Amino acid sequence: MLTEKDIDEHKSLESKGFDELIGEPRNIGIKVPKSGTLKALNKQRVITKHYGQLAEPVIVREYAEAADVAKGEAQDGRFQTI
User: Fold this and answer.
1) Torsion sign (Cα): 13, 15, 17, 49
2) Which of 20, 33, 53, 82 is deepest in the core (most CB within 10 A)?
3) Model pTM?
C-alpha cells in the first residue's frame, strides 16, 4: 500500500521498523487496525520466514480469519486507529 501511494518516493522505507511502517499510512490519513493485532501477525510471519518454523494449519486459518476481519473493518471504517 505504501508503494501504491508513492510514500516510498518521498521516504526511505527499507530502514523503518514494523511500528514505523504501520504508522506511515496513518500519517497520510489512512486508517489501520490496532497495532496489537498486526504485531501478532507479524511475529508469526517472522518466525515462519526467518527461522523456518512451520505454521500449523489451524494457525494459518486463524491468521487468515483475522486478516479477513481486519479487511472488513477497514472497508466499513469500524476499527480503531493506532
Assistant:
1) positive
2) 33
3) 0.46
